[in-house]
Amino acid sequence: MTGVSFEELAAFLRRPGGHPGGLPVDEVQECVCRSCDGRRFAVWVMDTASAARRTCLDCGRHELIADSVEYWDDDADVQCACACTCGGEEFAAAVGYALCEDGDDIRWIVVGLGCLACGHLGVYEQWKIDWGPSNYLLDLA
Q1: pTM over 0.90
Q2: Is residue 58 a contact partner of residue 38, using CB atoms and an 8 Å limit?
Q3: Residue 61 — pLDDT band, cuts 50, 70, 90?
């Protein structure tokens, strides 16, 4: 198993022009399981909405990322498991946040994953936040 450090993932998310939203990432939060402090996840995204859910591979707890609780539908058939080009489905995960100029709200969220099988880094989901106050989302990586 190849390790992917949080520092590598954070640097990847912060690189200039490094994601399709194009906004600079000001903050990066590592995804850590709230039950067991695990850092290995299976990650799912929605086809029809900007939302992501991570499942801890150590304890099985599901957690929705950022404001995904508003859009996630467990009953919908539009959930897609994230997979690396190598076929791996186990990831280290982090969430990048582009902040508004005043720093009081978030304007863009980027979900970055690092494949634990091969080390490949990628942006697997991203979405705009156009409401506030939204800074509390920094605690929901």
Answers
A1: yes
A2: yes
A3: very high
Q: How far apart are CA 90 and CA 40, in angstroms?
A: 6
Q: Are 80 and 45 in contact (CB under 8 A)?
A: yes
Q: How many CA atoms lie within 13 A of 138 on its CB side?
A: 17
Rounded to whole angstroms, the Cα distance separating 56 from 89 reads: 12
Q: Is the alpha carbon torsion for 12, 17, 20, 24 positive or negative?
A: positive
- Measured distance CA(136)–CA(141) in Å, rounded: 10
Q: Look up the domain containing 60 and give its range.
A: 6-139
Q: How many domains does the chain have?
A: 1
Could you tell me how many residues make up the chain? Answer: 141
One-letter identity of residue 95: V
